[in-house]
Amino acid sequence: MKTGRLVSIAIFILVIAAFLFSWWRSDWSKSGLLVTTGAFLTLFILSFLYKDNPYYKFAEHLFVGVSAAYWMMMSFWNIMVPNLVAKLYPSLVGGALPALADKPPDYLFFIPMVLGIMLLMRLSPKGGWISRWALAFIVGTTAGLNLIRYLRSDFIRQIDNTMIPLVAQTDAGISFWGSFSNIVIFIGVLCGLIYFFFSKEHKGLFGGAARLGIWILMLTFGAGFGYTVMARISLLAGRMSYLFGDWLRLINQ
Amino acid sequence: MDNMDNSNKKSMLERLLLIDRRYVFICIALAVIIPILFHISFREIATDIVRDLYEEIDELPPGSRIMLSFDYAPTTAPEIQPMVDAIIWHAAKKNLKIYMMAVWPTGHSLIGQTIDSVLIPEFPDLVDGVDYMNLGYKAGNQGLIRVIVDDIKRMYSTDANGTDIDLIPMMKTVTSLKDMDFIVSFGGGFPGVKEWILFAGDPGNIKVGGCCTAVSAPLLYPYYPNQMVGLLGGIKGAAEYESEMIKHFPEFRRRPTPALDLMGPQTIAHIVIMFFIIFGNVMYFINRARERKLEDTGRR
Predict the structure, then answer these.
(1) Pairing of strands A173-174, A169-170
(2) Which value, to the nearest 10 degrees, does the dihedral of the CA atoms of residues A81, A83, A85, A90 take?
(3) Which of A107, A142, A197, B31 could form a disulfide with B272 if both were Cys (CB 3.0 to 4.6 A apart)?
(4) For the segment A169-225, what is each residue's pLDDT rounded down to a tens digit?
(5) Cα distance from B76 to chain A (closest Cα, Å)?
């Protein structure tokens, strides 16, 4: 037997022994099993930072499988049953949703049912084209719905939000930091827009504004990156709190 | 001897430039673990954007309706859950009517978890269906939000427990989202805070507050203050809200404050990351200057 395989078997036995030891420490309780499983799965995922390994792969595949099953069950019990079955055949859902069993059927819901079946035709090698009709319906309604709202809230209202007085007034008089903030927003938006205006050569005063625009964009990306770092550290700290608090009980929570 | 020193120095510089990323991981891990173990935390002062959200909830008269939308997953729970706990505690303390829903499937179970961990143990007098209710998850993303702005009952025929919506006391006087006095979206991505502003806040003229992951916070700042009342961005926003709660509700100090606890690891880890950024850049410029010098010597 090769040394590599022996090492793998030894590591596997160690992991199992550590798992059982951890579970034993919680008196073989159900909650202890759940906490230990969570802790080991966290460690399996973190082991990727050293290098790719079978424990990481196991945790990754388990996550994908569990997520897919969760989404499927949530979709079935929260969408299919109350939104479709209960509307068409209320008596069928009497066991799960007795409140809906006595409602009159709404046959308009045959339309979404047919569209749903058409979408599933994508799985058929010959009838795949049928799904395009349902897909076109989804794309059309989503585009129509989004277009109006994005135009009003993300375009017109955002222009409105930028039209601010450069000298901010408060009850006590002129607000220095308020004015500074408004001037930064005004110049930032203007220079950012100039940077993306390519119909005129970026030269002279126009070029200077475009250069300032790219500096402002860089600052924005930097702030975004800083926030991303904060998010990732929060997730790591959350996992570490779990490992040292819930699992090892080294900290009081 | 001089040549030997130079080659040693060069190899040291090269070694520092090619430092294994796993050493960086160890440093970050230590920067996070040590403050957690030794309870290192820092004082937080609420910024305007957080204080505005706090004051909006605080100034709602008792009995006002607040809709909380759980639009996140367990993957972002370390950031979002402290905000949820603090805001739901605040709303319950102010005797607001709490309506909970989710446009993310994962939000459904997180609502139940929050009720079990905050409302039931800390506010045992509150009654399900009278003081708070769980509408559960519904599919449709922004389409769902757009429909319930005009008619909630068109999408929700029961609550999450399967109770007929018409039999729930809290729903007797509610027909649409426009009946809500305030909406807070706990958003971990799409659909989230932005969709609530675009599809509920703006068309329905309803006040919307946001609580989001740090990653999405910069994209939401443009909506403040005209389209969004306030924003808690990442764990920093949550910590600021918790500090504001401690300031006004001394009893809040007796309950866990996970966001304030996580600010210690945050600060130390950020210092370590800043050190590595500066260190990496200094090493890069030293190496570039050395290479240029060597090129010049070679030409001569």
Answers:
(1) antiparallel
(2) 100
(3) B31
(4) 888 889 899 899 999 999 999 999 999 999 989 899 999 999 999 999 999 999 999
(5) 7
- What percent of chain B stands above pLDDT 70? 96
Q: CA-nearest residue of chain B to A96?
A: B162
A-contacting residues in B 236-275 (Cβ below 8 Å): 236, 256, 258, 261-262, 265-266, 269-270, 273
Within an 8 Å CB–CB cutoff, is residue A117 touching chain B?
no
List the strands of the sheet with B182-187, edge to edge: B132-137, B97-102, B65-71, B182-187, B208-212, B231-233
Residue B1 has pLDDT above 50, yes or no: no
Which A positions 152-171 lie with beta carbon below 8 A of chain B? Answer: 152-154, 157-158, 160-161
- Tell me the backbone φ, ψ of residue B216, rounded to 5 degrees: -90, -10
What does the block give as tokens for A51? 């290098």
Residues 43-62 of A with CB under 8 A from B: 49-50
Q: Report how far residue A189's alpha carbon sits from residue A168's, in angstroms, rounded to the nearest whole number.
A: 18
What is the spatial distance between Cα B271 and Cα A201, in angstroms, rounded to a whole number?
42
Q: How many percent of chain A have pLDDT more than 90?
A: 70
Residues of B in contact with A229 (CB under 8 A): 270, 273
Is the minimum CB–CB distance between B75 and chain A shorter than 8 Å? Answer: yes
A contacts of B199 (beta carbons < 8 Å): 149
Q: Determine the pLDDT at residue B99.
A: 97
- Please tell me which of the candidates A158, A236, A240 has its beta carbon nearest to residue B222: A158
Domain ranges of chain B: 13-42+261-279, 48-248
Q: Topology of B48-248 in CATH?
A: Rossmann fold (3.40.50)
CB B256 within 8 A of CB A236: no
Range B205-224 average pLDDT: 94
Enumerate residues 106 to 125 of chain B having a beta carbon within 8 A of any beta carbon in chain A. Answer: 106, 108
**Full-model pTM:** 0.89
Please give the residue that has the higher pLDDT: either A77 or B205. Answer: B205
Residues A85 and A42: their CA atoms lie apart, in Å, by: 39
Indicate which of A149, A229, A234, A242 best probes the interface with B, i.e. most B CBs within 10 Å of its own CB: A234
Give the per-residue pLDDT at B179: 96
Q: What is the mean pLDDT of chain A?
A: 91
CA-based nearest residue to B37, from A87, A137, A248: A248
Query: What's the whole-number mean pLDDT along residues B143-149?
Result: 94
